[in-house]
Amino acid sequence: MTLDALRLEVPDIREEVVLPLADLGEQLAAARQQSVENALQQALSLLFQLNRSAMTLLERQRALQSFSEEYRHYAARYADSSAPPALFVRLCNELAIGFKRLLLQILQGRHPSRPHLAWCLYMAEHFIAQTLMRHYQLYQEPPEGLWRDSHLLYWIAEHQDCLDEHVAAAFQPTPAATLRGLYQQTLLLAMSNPFHLAEGECPILFGALTPLAGLASLLPWEEDEDNEAHIVDLSLSQPCLTVDQPQDSDPSNLRRLELGALLVALHEPAPLQTPTERELLERVKPHWLGRQQRRHPRADFSADCSLVIGLPNIHAQLLEKRPQACPAQMLDASPGGARLHCNADQGGPLPVGQLVLVLASKGTPSLAVVRWRHLNSEGLHLGLRYLKGLPRPVWLRRTPSAQTHPGVLQSTPAPGNGWHHGLWLPGGQFVEGENLWLQLANVNNQAVVQLPAANLTTPSVVRHPLRLA
Questions:
Q1: CATH code for the domain in which residue 349 is found
Q2: Is residue 152 very low, low, confident or very high in pLDDT (cuts 50, 70, 90)?
Q3: pTM of the entire structure?
Q4: How many separate domains does the chain show?
Q5: Mean per-residue pLDDT for 369-379?
Q6: What pLDDT score does 291 carry?
Q7: Is there a single domain that holds both residue 372 and residue 434?
Q8: Opening angle at CA 110, ends 105 and 115, nearest 5
Q9: Which is the most buried residue in 64, 92, 132, 246, by most CB within 10 A?
């Protein structure tokens, strides 16, 4: 399926509904003089009319800014984490509807500015997040459409390059300052088994997640993933897939939530974090790991190792040329991966997606890809995903006598007598369908291979599956 902004859930415009804007401020100010219940009812009624009235983009934006101020006023009454009335939850939802309609008007313009678009996307996402959080606070299942629209807003921001635009929004409880952080903050809240929280803990947890949410990484889904991570399907009306749900959606709609850096940061000193927030985060952390039960038990230990970084250096190491290696300390490991720690100044050549060769004091070298990274006062923390198979150096040429290019052939036994091969190449150097001459070390002959579509791509390297005679 194709995600489309026009699928945002907004009510129809009613021609007979016209909200007078000239005295809107006076009406909202008069409503504040009434009891809280009557004031909320009056503000909600006015906003309901606004969202179903035809008006220009500027008129709608100014009116929604006024209602955002009303939201701040009424939200302050529940700053002590007391449960809000249903009218307040409806006010949050109507504000989300208003900003979604404003977003559609912006998108229909000829050349919307990115800051303006990012602000509107953020405001719509914020009020959806508030509506979701308040439903969880009241122990109510949120309407399905909220998650569908939340995913869709993320998708639009991703394609409009607005995910990391900083938005100054003074709301309580404090949201993350970018749409990426805010979206992941809401995902983490939903993954925290919110219906098992004590009364009043939901908004506390939401606020505690604010400085941490941006450390998670929502990455493209890979077909040969080991299924340790939470999988988000942007086309479904739920936060993420359950353990027993099949991943049968279009791969372009699937994202993998990587929590490695967040889990490291969770144990760092946080002077502004209250003891209640720290205890709450520790209590919900096992729920985040619920879908990340590892296939292999991971053992905590401390052992020195070194990393050969990048495909050219790995190629040289496999030829026993001994390139420079980065010293590191292995903190835990399993057959599927490892967590390492090294000096902070080693971080430059170790981005997420970099190919490395782990050299331990015992055993054979292990090919791995950097899965997550986190830099703090202790140094650089790395999460590695091991790549099964025997790595071997190869050379590639575009013609039999042309310049050689280094590559790494990763081979694993197939059922029977065959082998599965994966050819690792530098990103952007070759294209699908290109004919190449491949030569193994210590072999004189060259084999002609046509590069098939890649089955794993990172910003640094790409892997192509191969069939060799």
A1: 2.40.10.220
A2: very high
A3: 0.78
A4: 3
A5: 83
A6: 45
A7: no
A8: 70
A9: 132
